């Protein structure tokens, strides 16, 4: 079963959405939409994009353009994330027109050593973030993550590209410059450029002075040594196919420049439900929200603190159903198991009860009414104890029970022997019984003679029964 995620991006001039289905075999783009907001309200643009992409209440991730954020690189003397988060608002305070408390902040750690950590910090005005969330809520959208456009693409580069590189996410009049060094994002900047600019009377083309802005930013930041020419430049966004700009920046840095298209990655497929066109440069940065960031390259997420996601009633119902189903199955399985175990014990109890009654009937054949065999048998045993005690008082005589126990112990259980009658007085015990042959009678005699209870054991009689399949015998045991 596929997990469906709706990825939405809001920038200053456009709204883009991509509906993604993820399963064990592939990540599939099932729908997409892109609307310019020049002549539309943001709510209408979002609503149109949702319709184009085929959004129907799936989980949502949101990215916002770099133009909504302020960025700063920091060096801090510790690596603990909680401590870093505490000092960020103060460090970004001078980049905002409002108070420290008015900024929502997050950060990426680009490097750690014994001296502390290098941090890429980002901040956005809380009022801007709250406004976006309110507009989305009216349309039934409740994003799980709120990230910065282009950063997920840079994370993908950091994970799979060996070496330093620059990612330029180029859109109308602005671009996100993201530097990746040592498999970590080390710099993020928003560059605003003129669409047409001339130098010494010559036109620079559609992307104006962007190449010069990139060079100045790299020289000022010093995160990449542009003189060594040991880095690559990758392009994404609506301007990634501008051949004139590619040639300009390639000539400027003398390095390889090429579009970076996530849609060309393995196990990624396009299968649009409603038709339309997938524009890789425009939609790849949005599609990237469906890709997991490497644990070490933890992405930005401004959905925290007062902006932490609150579950809607529909989401709570889904979570309840997901949690209830396995619990119900567990309880059902437990009930079946204990039910079968209980039935097995009941059947065993009935079988034992049946055996008790059979033994009781053999021991007390004259008792016809059996109510509680154990209690009735105990009563009979107590009566026997009262009736018989062999020998004079105080001379250590044998009780009936001790005689029965001794006789039972001496006759092997493997022998087929049934005692029909037992008569005892102070001197002798007479036994009448049935067995299968004469040899068994002789063996019984020899076994009983070994007992210290008896002086002599004599076979009084032994004869074949009328049917000829049993031997009737009588023994005399002298105490």
Explain how this protein is built.
The protein has 11 helices and 20 strands. With 479 residues, it is an alpha/beta fold. The chain folds into 2 domains: 3-310, Nucleotidyltransferase, domain 5 (2-Layer Sandwich), CATH 3.30.420; 392-478, General secretion pathway protein M, EpsM (Gyrase A, domain 2), CATH 3.30.1360. Strand 17 and strand 18 (428-435) form a beta hairpin. The longest helix has 51 residues, at 313-363. The two termini are 86 Å apart. Mean pLDDT is 85; it is low at 390-396.
| Tally of separate domains | 2
How is the quaternary structure best described? single chain
- Based on the coordinates given, report the CATH architecture of the largest domain: 2-Layer Sandwich
Main sheet specs: 6 strands, mixed
Rounded to an integer, what's the Rg over CA atoms? 47 Å
The assigned structural class equals alpha/beta
Give the neighbour order of strands across the main sheet.
8-4-1-2-3-16
Given the structure, what is the number of helices? Answer: 11
Distance between the termini: 86 Å
Tell me the strand percentage band.
25-35%
Level-1 CATH class name of the largest domain: Alpha Beta
CATH topology of the largest domain: Nucleotidyltransferase, domain 5
Model regions low in confidence, pLDDT < 50 over at least 5 residues: 390-396
